[in-house]
Amino acid sequence: MKGRATSPRQAIASKCKDCTYDTEAAGNWRQQTATCPVVHCALWTFRPLHGNAPAWLAARDAEQLPENWRSMPNVDAVDTVTGKALNGREGTPFQDNGAVGDSCTPIVSAMPVNAAYQRYSKGGAG
Prior knowledge:
By secondary structure, the chain is mostly helical. It contains five helices and no strands.
């Protein structure tokens, strides 16, 4: 039995979610994907963003990101994207209507880069 064909957009969203989503971190999978710090990834400019993402993020230009973006803790990055940050670039609140039912999606790698580094630096196996 043949399955439905996956579009390039769906494949990219799936890979980005697989790479960045951590159920124990701040934000839902779309917010975590939007805050991806790996700007040199081939998929970074194509990662899914919600229509309400701030203009500086929607531009998909690494030069427009806040200075400490790549080292910013996940919770601070999500707050910056959602417009809840007390400092940095505040934007339109990030509204995600597509997050319903995400708990059924299998997660192959549920550890974002920052979380993996933090666990490694504390002596954990990853």
